[in-house]
Design brief:
alpha/beta, Rossmann fold, five-stranded mixed β-sheet, 20 helices
């Protein structure tokens, strides 16, 4: 029926295609004329006269045009009739298919619906039939329970005859050898004209001589030698195989066939047959099998005691007590207790039987339906049984499938693991990057500090060069005084009566002037030496005075008014004398440079020292210059930033680094009226302040040749 519907649909499609082609051809043969004012309407028929076109050219003749138009109308009418007929036929076929009676399928199981593996075959056949057959289907499933006892089959045949007395089934399917033998034996009395498909029958047990052209077979080929070879490959030390088989009439026939088939392996392994034992005796024997044994499960329908065993209950009980692994030949038992191996596929058997039945129901001849036997398939194994019997997967045949393996964490949480691993890698990369960046910055800071120290020393050397004239002048004064005193002493000694007292005074003055020169040299040397020295308690007032003394000759020519307001009770600070001296010197010189262009008001330099609560000493250096541009106030301490035309931009940066290294602060702010104020804040040395015996100021006043007063700090004894 499906084929007829397909042919009908293809016919309709071809007719529709032919109509379209005819329409296109008609358009090419006689194009539709363009309407003009000279059209003449004559009743229901159109007649068109083309003005300005002589006969014989273009669409030359009016009669030919009218004739072609009439033929086109007739062709369209014909196709309309064909369309109506096709639609009516399609509707009739659909209606007949919808109202057709369902196909009746009689499915006969061997033994019963709960006996494995035949019940599994029947389930698969029923499922495949319902999927493949498109029309309605009635499946009647019956079980040949008489095969359990070997009698009553004629009564069962009478029952079937009465059941289908009003209408015979359209097809009969059987599963297993008992059902196949029953149908072949009684079909002439039951349904002689009904086609039969014998499914799931061992090929060696099919009664081919009794079959007719109305019969088809979907057999299985149980390779017993291959199944035993699998056991010997997986368990090479096996020397004894216990065969589980029932004792019904059909099972006895299969045992005899199996004994014959396994005869070639008699010299390699010993077979123990359980078919003549009750199930309890089978379990007792299975519990005490000798070492290197295995169990091969064929089928257990009825044991020697006459007890029947349904589904997989018997295998579950036997597995619980057996001391050897269990094997079989059909995958229905996989997952129920067998180790595995090459197995007959229940799905393949169901598909083969269903395909054969559908072909027959669709009109095929049963005798022409050929189905290849279903053989042992790809080896399949139960991972749980492999673990139980300590069987290595390396012993399995190539291409084996291991089922029932518990999913690993990767299988269950693959995407979660990937996300976590990705996040971890990203985080690790970020941490590594941050660590590298931190190390790089630390090295850069060390290099910067080292470079800053070099620059500071270069700045001190440059400052020393600039102050060389002042230093020479300061050294010239004590040297000249020493020469004068020595000459005076020589004169006193060269007198007629040497004046020893005056000579002693002159020599004492020489000593004092020499010490004075040494102190000047030490002060300058301490300021400009490069090597690191230990920090000591310092009095900032002394540093300020020493710096002002060095810059005296530089400040005086610039007409700078110097005002100092130094706190006499200023506590000491802990620091490096030369570095702090350099800071004060740079700040004083910057203040002087800031006022060099001021001509309309006094140039005033104010230096103040005081204690800043709670624990700091504050030095303020203010000038009356033009001040600092507000947009530059945040950058004046940056390296290489300068507002001088000939500046390097390193002086204030070096000063700030020195003060920061001493734990203090250096900042700038506008002065009250004019100029700016640079403030230095340093922490008080509390230990030295409490001792009270660090420094004392000794004021040495000496006037010579109109020179200014020199203040020199000297440590106390």
């Amino acid at each position: 029926m499906a084929q007829r519907r397909g042919l009908f649909a293809r016919g309709v499609s071809r007719l529709a295609t032919a109509e379209l082609l005819s329409k296109e051809k008609a358009r090419r043969l006689c194009p539709r004329p363009t309407k003009s004012p000279s059209e003449v309407r004559d009743g229901s028929r159109h007649r068109t006269t083309f003005l300005g076109v002589p006969n014989g050219k273009g669409c030359s003749k009016l009669n030919a045009t009218v004739l072609q138009t009439e033929q086109l109308h007739m062709t369209r009418a014909l196709y309309c009739v064909i369309h109506v007929v096709c639609v009516a036929a399609l509707f009739s076929a659909t209606l007949s298919a919808a109202t057709a009676e369902p196909k009746r399928v009689l499915l006969i199981n061997s033994y019963g619906r709960e006996f494995a593996p035949w019940n599994e075959y029947a389930k698969e056949i029923r499922s495949q039939l319902q999927d493949e057959w498109e029309g309605p289907l009635d499946i009647y499933e019956l079980s040949l329970t008489t095969a359990l006892f070997g009698k009553g089959e004629r009564d069962f045949a009478s029952y079937l005859h009465a059941l289908f007395s009003d209408r015979e089934p359209d097809i009969i399917l059987t599963t297993g050898a008992p059902a196949a033998d029953f149908v072949v034996q009684f079909r002439q009395n039951l349904f002689p004209g009904t086609p039969v498909v014998l499914a799931a029958v061992n090929q060696q047990l099919v009664p081919y001589s009794a079959l007719s052209a109305n019969d088809a077979v979907a057999p299985v080929d149980i390779d017993l030698i291959g199944a035993i070879e699998n056991i010997l490959q997986v368990l090479p030390d096996t020397n004894n195989i216990a065969v589980v088989m029932g004792n019904s009439r059909h099972e006895q026939n299969f045992v005899e066939q199996m004994r014959t088939a396994l005869q070639p392996l008699a010299n390699r392994v010993t077979f123990t047959w359980f078919n003549e034992l009750s199930f309890n005796e089978m379990m007792q024997q299975a519990a005490k099998l000798p070492p290197h044994s295995a169990i091969f499960w064929l089928a257990l329908i009825v044991d020697a005691a006459g007890a029947s065993h349904q589904e997989f209950d018997a295998m579950t009980l036997l597995r619980a007590v057996a001391n050897a692994p269990i094997f079989s030949f059909v995958d229905a038992y996989l997952g129920k207790g067998i180790v595995g191996g090459p197995l007959i596929s229940v799905r393949d058997v169901g598909q083969a039987a269903s395909h054969a039945a559908v072909r027959i129901l669709d009109g095929g001849t049963p005798g022409d339906v050929r189905t290849s036997p279903i053989v042992l398939g790809t080896p399949k194994f139960d991972w749980r049984e492999l673990q139980r019997w300590n069987i290595s997967e390396s012993r399995l045949p190539p291409g084996s499938k291991v089922l029932f393996r518990p999913p690993t964490a990767w299988d269950q949480y693959r995407w979660q693991i990937i996300l976590i691993a990705t996040a971890f890698l990203l985080q690790s990369a970020l941490i590594a990057g941050l660590g590298f960046e931190h190390r790089r910055r630390r090295n850069a800071e060390i290099l910067a500090r080292r470079s800053m120290g070099e620059l500071a020393n270069m700045n001190r050397v440059a400052t020393a060069g600039e102050l060389s004239a002042s230093i020479a002048h300061e050294m010239k004064q004590p040297l000249a005084a020493m020469v004068t005193n020595v000459r005076a002493g020589l004169r006193w000694l060269g007198a007629a009566e040497p004046n020893l007292e005056e000579t002693r005074v002159a020599l004492q003055n020489v000593v004092k002037d020499g010490n004075r020169a040494a102190e000047v040299i030490d002060s300058v040397r301490a300021m400009f030496k490069k090597e690191q020295t230990e920090r000591t308690p310092l009095n900032l007032n002394d540093l300020i005075r020493s710096v002002l003394y060095l810059l005296r000759d530089e400040l005086q020519p610039q007409h700078i008014i110097l005002r100092t307001n130094l706190d006499p009770q200023l506590p000491p600070v802990q620091g490096h004398r030369g570095e702090l001296q350099q800071v004060i010197l740079n700040l004083v010189r910057n203040a002087a440079d800031a006022m060099k262009d001021i001509t309309y008001r006094p140039r005033v330099l104010t230096i103040k020292s005081e204690t800043q609560p709670p624990n700091d000493v504050l030095i303020s250096i203010a000038d009356s210059g033009s001040g600092i541009d507000p947009k530059d106030i945040d950058h004046i301490f940056d390296a290489f930033f300068t507002t001088k035309s000939n500046g390097m931009g390193m002086g204030l940066s070096i000063c700030k680094s020195i003060i920061d290294d001493h734990g203090g602060r250096l900042w700038a702010s506008p002065n009250l009226k004019h100029g700016s104020v640079f403030n230095v804040s340093l922490p008080i040395d509390k230990a030295a302040s409490q001792s009270g015996k660090i420094f004392e100021l000794v004021l040495i006043k000496r006037k010579q040749r109109g020179h200014a007063v020199l203040y020199i700090p000297r440590p106390c004894a």
